[in-house]
Amino acid sequence: ATEYHLGLLKAKLARYRAQLLEPPTKSGGGGTGFDVQKSGDARVALIGFPSVGKSTLLSKVTHTASETAAYEFTTLTAIPGVIEYEGARIQLLDLPGIVEGASEGRGRGRQVVSTAKTADMILIMLDATKSEEQRRLLEIELDAVGIRLNKRKPDVVFKRKTTGGFTATVKLTRTNEKTIRTILAGYKLHNCDVMIREDITTDEFIDVLIGTRKYIPCLYVYNKIDAISLEQMDKLAHDDQTVVISCELDLNLDYLIERIWDDLGLVRIYTKKRGAHPDLDDPVCMRKGSNIEDVCNGIHRSLSANFRYALGKSSKFAPHAQKVGMNHLVQDEDVVSSALS
Question: What is the pLDDT of residues 290-302, one digit of tens each?
Answer without folding.
Answer: 888 888 887 777 7
